[in-house]
Each structure stands twice: as C-alpha cells, then as structure tokens.
Amino acid sequence: MTTSNIELASDLRKAIRGVVKADEPMSKHTTFKIGGPADVFVDPADADDLAAVVSWANRHDVPWLAFGAGANMLVSDRGIRGILIKMGRPFQRIELEGERLYVGSGANLDKVVSVTTEAGLAGLEYAAAIPGTVGGAIVMNAGTYRGQIGDVIETVSVVTSEGERRDLSPEDSQFRYRWSVFQVDRSRIIVSAIMRLRPGDRDELVRTAEGIRRKRATNLPSGPSAGCVFKNPEGQSAGQLIDQAGLKGTRVGDAVVADKHGNFIVNEGKATASDVKALADLVRQAIREKFGVELEFEVRIVGDW
Ligand code: EPU
Q1: Mean pLDDT by 10-residue block, N- to C-terminus, for the chain (305 residues)?
Q2: Among the listed residues 227, 224, 229, 213, the one whose alpha carbon sits nearest the alpha carbon of residue 266
Q3: CATH 2.10.109.10 fits 221-302, yes or no
Q4: What residues does each domain of the chain span?
C-alpha cells in the first residue's frame, strides 16, 4: 500500500457516495484473473455519482478509466495508475418498452439476451454467452459472424469528462468491426443505451440462444481468459491461423494457447500479465513469419507496462 493512494481514496470518498478502495488488485475484477493494483477503485452509486467522480478526477488531474466485467482486458502486473471506475450494480437496469430496450451499461450481456429472446425480440440472440457487460460490448462492438451490437443501437448515453450527460447516435459511435469511437475517445463513459429490436418467434429465438450457449460451452475453452486475444485479419480467422501454425499448447509460465481455440490464451493458475503478453507476442511473431500476417490485439491492454 502506498500512503498517497490511501490519501487519494480518502479524499475522493468525501466527494462522492459510492464505495472507494485504495490499491485494489485488478486480478479480482478481470476474467483472466490477472492484473496488479488500481491506485484507486470506485464503485459509483449512480450516474450522478459517476459524474461527480469524473469531475473530481479532472479537478485533481488524476487519470481515470471505466470498465465493466473486465472480460476483455489484460491489466499489467504493475497495475493501473489513477482511478478505476467499475460500472456495476447501479447500472444494470434492463427494461423493455415495445421493441425498444433500455439497458444500463453494467448489465450482463447474456442476461440481456435471455430477457429479450424470452420476450420474443430478435437482434441480440447471437450474443448469447458472450462474456461481459453491455457497456463493454458497445465499446468493442462485440459480436460474432451472425451480427454485432452496433447494428441494434439507437442511442448511447454517456457521461462526459466534464461530468455532463449526452446522448450519442450510432453514427457518433462510429461502429466498425470490433471497434467504436469509445476505444480511442476515453473522455466519455457509457452509462446506458437504447436498442431497437425486431419482433420474432419467441420459441425459435430462445432455442437459437440456447444452441449458441451450448456450442460455446463445448467448443470454447473454459478456464480464465479474455476470450479472443486477436482480431480476425480481413477474410481470415486468427484462431485458425494460430492452429495451422501448430501453436496450440504453447506456453509461457501458466499462460497457454488453448487447445480448443487457437485465439484464446488461458490462465492455467498463476499466469502473470507479462506471461500472457510474452506468449501473445510470440504468437504474433510466429504468424508474421509463417503467413506474413500482422495480428492485432482485440483484448484491451491496459495499465503501466
Ligand atoms: N478454427 C480452427 N482452429 C481453431 C479455431 C478456429 O481451425 O483453433 C476454425 C474453425 O473451425 C472455423 C474458423 O476457424 O472454421 C472460425 O472459427 P470460429 O467459428 O471459432 O470463429 P472465429 O472467427 O475464430 C469469432 C469471434 C469470437 C466468437 C466466434 C464465434 C473474433 C476475433 N472472434 O471467432 O469472439 O466467439 O467468432 O462466432 O471476432 C471474442 O470476441 O472474444 C471471441 C472469442
């Protein structure tokens, strides 16, 4: 523990209503179960409290980063400087009004798939069993070959770095393959979204989502991971290339290229962020040498490297 982080946390605690912790290990908050401490970790009480956190951070010149389920993050072993903002329970509203879905950014994506398919609404069923929150899925424009979340977005509501609320259109969000403007513009935090779905056959939608869940449970690795490590190169599958290069089972420490899917790195126990990064770099180099293809990270690499 460093005194300054404890002081920073205690100052912030006076300014907001949410829970504030100092030197919080990010390994507790990522699906990889990896990551050093966040200087200050905040669970804002609601959107106004979130705005207060951001204004406070800006006034005090402290960097901040918001995250959801930590399902697509590799946090360095040295951790993250500044304030880590958890988009948790207060942001988990899921409400349907006709074909419109009003959803908080902290809502679990698979739960949203259950609610919408059971209501006989189509447009998100392909996202069954994709780990993470709605906010994270919007940042990543998450999806599969069947569709991506940007396709159903009507409005994204954010809190800006000035602590103000704004509504953005899908055009403002600039959705592309596994990309949205929120990946480069960190001045806005997604708090909720409105999605426009289509009426469909309830039983068929529920069956489709269930089928996808079963398939993912059987075909994808189950250990701690962050899903696919690399984006698919145009017209190719990163997992298939890694498989063809014979890299499955390659390891650095406890970080292993998964047998079930080449684009997953699994933490078999005590893998560090450096192990994962070293393994990913080794894979990139092998794919570059073998196929002349430059793999790009899909996982967000964050913190102090
Ligand atoms: N393949 C192999 N070996 C492997 C992995 C895949 O030969 O080790 C082959 C498969 O047999 C298939 C093809 O490659 O013919 C494509 O594989 P898959 O259907 O698994 O799709 P993908 O393109 O590798 C994408 C997403 C996944 C998502 C799947 C399911 C990306 C980077 N990946 O993977 O998303 O689960 O489709 O539809 O877009 C993630 O975002 O974290 C993620 C895992």
Answers
A1: 85 97 98 98 97 94 96 97 97 98 98 98 97 97 93 97 93 95 91 98 98 97 97 96 98 98 98 98 98 97 95
A2: 224
A3: no
A4: 3-86, 92-218, 221-302
pTM for the whole structure: 0.94
Q: Residue with the nearest Cα to atom 37 of ligand 1?
A: 144
The burial of 155, by beta-carbon neighbours within 10 Å (0-12 exposed, 13-18 middle, 19 or more buried), is given as middle
Structure tokens at 197: 């779905």
Ligand 1: residue whose CA is nearest its atom 33: 228
Distance CA 288, CA 194 (A): 41
Identical topology for domains 3-86 and 221-302: no
Residue 239 CA, ligand 1 centroid: distance in Å = 6
Q: Domain 3-86's class?
A: alpha beta
Pocket of ligand 1 (CB under 6 A): 144-145, 227-228, 231-232, 237-240, 243, 261-263, 298
Indicate the fold that domain 92-218 takes in CATH. Answer: 3.30.465
